[in-house]
Amino acid sequence: MNNLLLGKRIVVTGAARGLGRSFATAVVQAGGSVVMCDVLAEELQDSAASLREQGAQVETQVFDLSSPQSISSAFSAITAGGPIDGLVNNAALATGIGGKTMMEHNIDLWDKVMQVNVRGTWLVSQAAVPLLAQTPHGKIVNIASDTALWGAPRLMAYVASKGAIISMTRSMARELGPMGISVNAIAPGLTRVEATEYVPAERHQLYEQGRALSGAQHPEDVTGSVLYLLSPLANFVTGQLLPVNGGFVFN
């Protein structure tokens, strides 16, 4: 696995912490270089510095998924560094948006989640396509969620946004295939990271007891699937959704 992404330049959004940081780490451990992107500027620089200390080739870009201008500016800088081989659309709004029923949701919450998770993913992908098209096998990996597969309650805006990511993945695969770009998605289960610290203990327990492979899910349980989809091993795979949740949901 050490050379699986040798010479590949990969953009990872939401890379300052949690799953995104794990994806960025896995990329460089597999021989690639990484462009780490996040709105959390200080945490992003700390995470990047940690990887550089290990000899990794790391670039950083601070941008806000809710701002088209911010995304455009960041990708202008990324473009200056040359083509990219892959994009991991990991960044999303998740913290602090759960716990409300469908009836308790308000328009501001709904619009914010859709603006960041859905529109932001589309705009980042749109900005990345010209760079991905310059390589023989460009790859986009969208991070969805298995909440969209089992219909998690009290999380409707987030669930809807991740359902949209799954549908977008299939449409993008059709449109970008003629350009040599494959687009796939993974649907992780509830993972023990900073963004899920707010999740009630009973929801964690539901997952951990309900999995075919029982127990907690950690970032390292997810990274291998992303590396595969970014690698030459998946050159003929596109438009697919891979649940990575220990068998809580089968697809």
Give structural notes:
Helix 1 packs across helix 8, helix 3 packs parallel to helix 4 and helix 4 packs parallel to helix 6. This protein starts with 8 loop residues before the first strand and ends in a 7-residue tail after the last strand. It has 251 residues and is of the alpha/beta class. Strand 2, helix 2 and strand 3 form a beta-alpha-beta unit. It contains eight helices and seven strands; from the N terminus they run βαβαβαβαβααβααβ. The mean pLDDT is 94. 45% of the residues are buried. A seven-stranded parallel beta sheet has the order 3-2-1-4-5-6-7, with helices on both faces. The longest helix is centred in the middle third of the chain and has 26 residues.
Give a brief rundown of this model.
By secondary structure, this protein is an alpha/beta fold.
The SS-based structural class is: alpha/beta
Radius of gyration: 17 Å
* Termini Cα gap: 26 Å
- Please summarize the sheet with the most strands: 7 strands, parallel
- The low-pLDDT segments are none
Give the overall form: globular
Number of strands: 7
Mean pLDDT: 94
| Element string (H = helix, E = strand) | EHEHEHEHEHHEHHE
Helix content: 40-55%
What percent strand?
15-25%
Major sheet: order of its strands? 3-2-1-4-5-6-7
Please give the count of helices.
8
Protein name: Short-chain dehydrogenase
InterPro entries: KR_dom, NAD(P)-bd_dom_sf, Sc_DH/Rdtase_CS, SDR_fam
GO molecular function: oxidoreductase activity, acting on the CH-OH group of donors, NAD or NADP as acceptor
Domain Ketoreductase: 8-189
